[in-house]
Amino acid sequence: MDLTLGPNLFFWEAERVRDFYARIADEAPVARVVLGEVVCSKRLPFWQGEIPVAVERLRAAGKEVWLSSLALVTLKRERSLTEELIDAGAGIEIADLTALAYIPAGAAFSVSPLINCYNVGTLDWLASRGARRICLPNELPMESVETLARAGKERGVAVEVWGFGRQPLAISGRCYHARLHDRIKDSCQFICNADPDGREVDTLDGERFLAVNGVQTLSCATSFAGREIPGLLAAGVSALRLSPHTGDMVALARAFEAAIAAGRATEDLEAAARAVAPGGQLANGYLHARAGAEWIDA
Amino acid sequence: MTSLPTLAPPLSRLVGLLPKPPASVALTLLARRIAARHSEIVGRLGTHVNASFALDPTDLPVVMILTLPAGQPRIRLQKDASGADCRIAGKLSALLALVHGAVDGDALFFSRDLVIAGDTAAALALRNAIDNAELDLLEEIQHVAPPLARALAPIAAALERQTGVALRRASGVI
Amino acid sequence: MELVCPAGTPAALRAAVEAGAHSVYCGFADETNARNFPGLNFSPKELAEGVAFAHKHGAHVLVAINTFPRAGDESLWHRNIAAAEAAGADAVILADMGLLAYAAKNHPNLRRHLSVQAAAANPDIINFYGREFGVKRVVLPRVLTVAEIAAINRETPEVETEVFVFGGLCVMAEGRCSLSSYATGKSPNMNGVCSPATEVQYVEEGDELAARLGDFTIHRVGKDQPAPYPTLCKGCFTSGDQVGHIFEDAVSLNAQDILPQLAKAGVTALKIEGRQRSRSYVAQVVRSFRAAVDALAAGQPMPQGALAALSEGQATTTGAYAKTWR
Lengths: 298, 174, 326
Known about the structure:
By secondary structure, chain A is α/β, with parallel strands linked by helices. Chain A has helices spanning about 15-25, 45, 50-60, 75-85, 120-130, 140-155, 175-180, 230-235, 250-260, 265-275; strands at about 1-5, 30-35, 65-70, 90-95, 110, 130-135, 160-170, 200, 210-215, 215-225, 240, 280-285. Chain A has a single domain (about 1-165, about 220-290), classed as Aldolase class I (TIM Barrel, Alpha-Beta Barrel), CATH 3.20.20. Chain A has ten helices and twelve strands. With about 170 residues, chain B is an alpha+beta fold. Chain B is built from eight helices and five strands; from the N terminus they run H-H-H-E-E-E-E-H-H-E-H-H-H. Chain B has a five-stranded mixed sheet. The radius of gyration of chain B is 15 Å and the shape is globular. At the A-C interface, helix 4, helix 5, helix 6, strand 7 and helix 7 of A face helix 4, helix 5, helix 7, strand 10 and strand 11 of C. Chain A: It holds the Pfam family Peptidase_U32. Chain A: Required for O(2)-independent ubiquinone (coenzyme Q) biosynthesis. Together with UbiU, is essential for the C6-hydroxylation reaction in the oxygen-independent ubiquinone biosynthesis pathway.
């Protein structure tokens, strides 16, 4: 089991993006990096220039690189962007099935957790289309992970599980960041860049609950699969996915690497996870077939 | 939505004076007959058949507690909803309209003409099962006590015209 | 345009057909469909009777098998596809890719529609579903404007589109939302329920009525306000110094006034949400929309519907069909 750094879901300034991937390339023990704009095509012009720079730097550091498609493709411009990804010279990670419409049959691709791969029938079909890696949807319980990891192994598809990060829970046509500022999506003035880890949404009782990130809704608690490492190893899961946050992702990746090598959750890993998780709040309910927001003392 | 009339206080007091045990027996008899003629009601309740339901006409001083031991309905009249897993409360006219398919349960709920408390899933299961049964209470009474039904029929028709309360299965729905 | 109407029960199916539904959609009483609610849905026998009734009245029956099969338990979903075909259903409405591939291979003569739960939101993916799985119709997600729908129809000549015109409104791309399971452990994709009744509690707290979903308070209203809708995305929350309906107000969709635009946009079928609603609601909404569709076909002005009181929270919106909604 190794580590994949997932695409950054937030709107970061170009400079922050550049520094982030430079440090990942130089220091983080991740086997591969997925990058690209997932959430909103309007953000892309602001940091698009950093993508080839990061790709080159990461490759030079020996990392495998995949480029993610958008999570929701509706506009003509977004369709073109998705189609152009095919020729960008790196593997594609599909985050909306639309990308498949452009990928030549049999060409290799990776599958984002935002694609609904819940069962072996779907895994089979994706594999027959050329899927080489599949990161499973967040809400799957361990039982499903085990079944799918086994099926993936038999078919030569690497099955990956969400290891760390606020979980993407929903994607919409509507921009909640703009709505919170009494704006509509078309005149959002890119306000989501004010919240580089997402903007928190609490219940009326003051309980921390969700986080909005433009058109995306995330969990407020950070999903963390550290304590489940032994089970995930036994299931034959091939990688854990770490989703970028503003905290120290290099330290976190190192702690994950050590815990995987030890075959168990370590106190260092959990401390590193709490340090990066906004508000230090962790959750792992989904893998235990419980509400995703729960923290099971497993 | 048509506004739901409240039962006149003198009538309500009258109901309060009814001796509860015989009234419970009569209602149980009616409920059993309904369940026998519409076996799909109990089927649709699924596991919620084990729940106890408080049917609470808020303009009457009594609450009907419905249980279904071994799938057989039993109704007990009490003063309040205590002890029940869920409570479905509203004016008698609202509850009758619901049973007769004259109104939509969700709409009544959002306008707060209907209150649901406790086990929401059990309450929903009962509502959906009743809605599917296309009940007409007068028709059901006909099967238990034909003379009573014959006596009630013209009164019900007149009352329905005057008050707009659904005392028969709503026409135009089925 | 074809009017596609909800039926949570056999009684609602008959009510819809008699009120003028061209088609009725329904599901089996298990986790294979996205309205897996207590007391609702059909047994295989009830479905066969419902299909016979509908066909006798010239209406079609579409069977939703639109959740994502649980790994290792696909056979339940497979059995239901076979049961739908055996009952004489006119089409199945599917969302899962594996299930689409299975149905295309094993039930080639059973017409396949793509559920809104697949959230196919542009012409390229719609044509892809048409090519790959022989999908004849796509139910569009509720994230598109009328102009976008028109553009889709121009580019997808082989695939029909169906759009929602009335009822509950998802504000997220359907089938790609796990808000419900985050709070309750049960989701539309896996269990066929969103914010399930088993996890909803209405609690009177002083003068207020609080709606709780799982461990979270999702709304609280005063005495004279409409009861809060127990769906997470319609809840009331706080963010920073703001308090309100961060995702969506307690509104439901009513596109009756824009039916002419939808017709012009090339839409084949209009869908009414609400399999969890009563037969009286279904009859009333179907009758109103049938009158509107007939008026439109005859070139007459739209009759003004009186549907607001049937809606959640008694307020309606045209949702994403208007660009400003975003």
